[in-house]
Design a protein that fits this description.
Elements: H1 3-22, H2 25-41, H3 52-74, H4 94-108, H5 111-122, H6 127-134, H7 138-156
Helix pairs in contact: 1-2, 1-3, 1-5, 2-3, 3-6, 4-7, 5-6, 5-7, 6-7
């Protein structure tokens, strides 16, 4: 399989991870597009010592972190929808409420913990692969996962281990 075919095969995985990071479909698509553009432009820097997917994930995460740093300097963007109150509606089913609560809890995690959690839980990567993508030792990754899981338990008020399923 040639370089561009491998990149094309990785696009759905990149989009899924970017959507989980950004919580915004348009922003995720922009992030993936920037990632693919950079990968193609910097193709000569890819050393096939590991999988292409891991290299693409590193590019995507670095672009995401750069965006976060830029946003912090620029200030917070508040969507107009959050300023307008919603009309009252009947509560959703309990499963949907729990899912929304978990989603909000994941959003509140520090970036490093959320990145690690999503790579392992959402993408189903091994600890070592996720650590390689994030450029950290496996022990550090496991510590971040432990802190993320503990924070999720505290944020959701659950004494149980959170059960997140992959959506592959």
């Amino acid at each position: 399989m040639d370089f561009l075919d491998e990149i094309e095969a990785t696009v759905p995985t990149l989009r899924r991870y970017a959507r989980a990071l950004t919580r915004n479909a348009d922003r995720a698509d922009d992030l993936v597009q920037d990632c693919l553009e950079r990968a193609i432009r910097k193709r000569s820097l890819f050393a096939p010592t590991g999988p292409l997917q891991a290299w693409l994930f590193r590019i995507l995460i670095n672009l995401w972190r750069n965006d976060l740093r830029f946003e912090r300097r620029r200030g917070e963007h508040v969507p107009i929808d959050s300023l307008v109150s919603e009309p009252s509606v009947a509560p959703a089913q309990p499963g949907r409420i729990a899912l929304a609560e978990m989603s909000r809890a994941i959003d509140r995690l520090p970036d490093d913990q959320r990145e690690a959690l999503l790579l392992v839980v959402l993408e189903g990567l091994s600890y070592q692969d996720a650590a390689d993508i994030l450029g950290i030792p496996a022990g550090t990754l496991m510590s971040r996962l432990g802190r993320a899981r503990a924070a999720l338990r505290a944020l959701t008020g659950s004494g149980e281990e959170p059960r997140l399923r992959s959506v592959k």
